[in-house]
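Dear H.,

Thanks for agreeing to be a second pair of eyes. The structure we're designing against is below in token form, covering all 273 positions.
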């Protein structure tokens, strides 16, 4: 999709090489607590990733009960959604001035026609455009990390899944063959881990590396409680829940993994042990 915009920009440059109309890219991140399709989406991913190694086991015995429970959860739940916009740029990652013209980091004007010239002529070059597209993709990905808004549900999902993974000491595939009933996080340990992650996230927020939702200003115990409630929302099998003894467990590790991915890429796993 990004590649087609480059060809459109080249045609606009041909129409007016000196001051062509500019196509802008505006990064947008949608943050939400949970989605109905999460269990199915992660199942599809694993089937594609592991192919014959992955066998989907269906539980027909409880299907009616699960459907009724899902319907109740769906009707009684709500999920917050926030839109976060990044800084607009042109298709080459350049910043824009107040008039929407491309400029360098020093504020100098950028001639978009120069990106499409070869031998002094504006040419069509798919290989060159592919390189520009990769650079733009990298810029958008960097922007994603910067404007991503962390919710309490993202935080508790990441903390819990990484704890289970590190405690089991196996690769991802073998982890999902383990019994979920044996996966437990002591209450004090979970509070400690989430507290440690919050300290790091607040530091990253101050440095412009990520953004935090307002509800993350609350005490750690409230963040955990509300995060688990928001995470479980629509799901019959809770990705994360609090046991009667106060410790934490999971009824669906794969769905927990799905939500944990929201904080993947920030190297936060180093703060869990």
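And this is the sequence the design step returned. I haven't edited it by hand at all.
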């Amino acid at each position: 999709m990004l590649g087609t915009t480059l060809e459109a920009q080249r045609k606009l440059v041909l129409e007016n090489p000196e001051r062509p109309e500019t196509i802008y890219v505006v990064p947008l991140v949608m943050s939400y607590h949970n989605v109905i399709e999460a269990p199915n989406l992660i199942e599809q991913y694993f089937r594609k990733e592991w192919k014959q190694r992955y066998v989907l086991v269906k539980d027909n015995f409880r299907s009616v009960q699960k459907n009724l429970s899902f319907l109740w959860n769906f009707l009684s739940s709500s999920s917050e959604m926030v839109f976060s916009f990044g800084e607009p740029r042109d298709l080459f990652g350049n910043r824009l001035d107040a008039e929407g013209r491309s400029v360098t980091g020093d504020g100098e004007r950028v001639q978009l026609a120069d990106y499409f010239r070869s031998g002094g002529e504006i040419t069509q070059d798919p290989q060159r455009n592919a390189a520009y597209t990769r650079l733009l993709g990298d810029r958008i990905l960097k922007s994603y990390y910067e404007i991503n808004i962390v919710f309490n549900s993202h935080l508790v999902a990441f903390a819990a899944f990484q704890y289970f993974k590190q405690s089991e000491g196996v690769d991802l595939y073998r982890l999902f063959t383990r019994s979920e009933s044996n996966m437990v996080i002591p209450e004090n340990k979970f509070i400690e881990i989430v507290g440690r992650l919050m300290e790091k996230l607040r530091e990253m927020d101050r440095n412009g590396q990520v953004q935090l939702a307002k509800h993350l200003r609350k005490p750690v115990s409230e963040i955990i409680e509300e995060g688990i409630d928001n995470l479980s929302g629509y799901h019959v099998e809770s990705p994360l829940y609090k046991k009667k003894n106060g410790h934490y467990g999971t009824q669906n590790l794969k769905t927990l993994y799905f939500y944990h991915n929201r904080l993947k890429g920030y190297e936060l796993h180093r703060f869990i042990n």
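Two observations from my side: Residues 57-77 have pLDDT under 50 and may be disordered. The CA atoms of residues 116 and 124 lie 7 Å apart.

Warmly,
E.
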